[in-house]
């Protein structure tokens, strides 16, 4: 089965922590701070791979994580940067934030490489905090937390013209005749289970790309059958060729078929239904003489609405040249730039992954703050120094812990305990 949609988890690398250390060498009894900086976390980068045409690979692997930056070392050694992760996708893939559905990036046109998540910055080592009055800082900066995101990938084929119609009206036959595409063709419904792309070459014209969108049915816009899987591929097309069985070989009314599918297009996306449309009335070689002319009935119905009708036979090729040249004329009057989905979701909307912590009030009314976030911060901060304690207070404010303590009802003079460290709370 053709895979054109996938949901995956992506995570950038966390920045490496800065290091606390001091120069210790023979004959240098009071060496200065030499803790190095942490390395930057790896980025999550999406790249277009022209050799791919489905999202099948994402069915087998759904989690993609860049490497964390390394911690800084002694002797001013900088931690290594985390390795980026490169995710390859086919051209035309739209990356969306899974919960909101907002577009993060459209991997089409000139956009063949995009960094979706940037790795966290590395923390500064204690060598960066030495001053004239504080020559031996015993604290360093933690690395920036990582960012994570659940995203959906949607492949929307890049074609100038979309070929739509009910199943078994001859779309695949038409595509195989006018392009280099070789779709499977058989006489049963839903023969085509994936969009087929082909290039139409015209003798004295530029030509265009056409996509055979698999047979739509009533209710497709609501996801009935494989509706949504197919309809998204029409979103980039600029002109629609609406193909019908003019001979009614399966007993359906071609005029009703056109209205039914146009309603599905409009229900899915009103903008699609407003695009230029041409009707290809197929199977004229199966119309018997003496019957009421079905082609004229279709023309009488739709040409007053500005929709041109062409009588064709996809099998014999009759009428195809006129149809293709008319479609090419329509395209020449439209913006030649491909339809690209605008970015709606930006990286600054993505929260950073944070270490957890808890705030509880014990039986003595002491506010107890604990968790990996606090334990880690206390591990690289010297609270005995004035600057170190100021650094710790800033951490409590910037991380939102002070705000949560206030929401928990803390008052001035109340006691806060963090892993054996107690202090009174004052604003």
TrEMBL record:
Residues that hold GTP according to the record: 165-172, 190-194, 212-215, 282-285, 313-315
Cofactor requirements of the protein: Mg(2+)
Record's protein name: GTPase Obg
Protein location: Cytoplasm
EC number: 3.6.5.-
GO cellular component: cytoplasm
The entry's keywords: Cytoplasm, GTP-binding, Hydrolase, Magnesium, Metal-binding, Nucleotide-binding
Coiled coil: none
HAMAP family reported for this sequence: GTPase_Obg (MF_01454)
Primary location recorded for the protein, binned into one broad class: cytoplasm
Organism annotation: Candidatus Galacturonatibacter soehngenii
GO molecular function, one term: GTP binding
Pfam families linked to this entry: DUF1967, GTP1_OBG, MMR_HSR1
Job of this protein: An essential GTPase which binds GTP, GDP and possibly (p)ppGpp with moderate affinity, with high nucleotide exchange rates and a fairly low GTP hydrolysis rate. Plays a role in control of the cell cycle, stress response, ribosome biogenesis and in those bacteria that undergo differentiation, in morphogenesis control.
Family according to the record: Belongs to the TRAFAC class OBG-HflX-like GTPase superfamily. OBG GTPase family.
Residue intervals of the Obg domain: 1-158
Binding of Mg(2+), residues: 172, 192
InterPro entries: G_OBG, GTP-bd, GTP-bd_Obg/CgtA, GTP-bd_prot_GTP1/OBG_C_sf, GTP1-OBG_CS, GTP1_OBG_dom, GTP1_OBG_dom_sf, OBG_GTPase
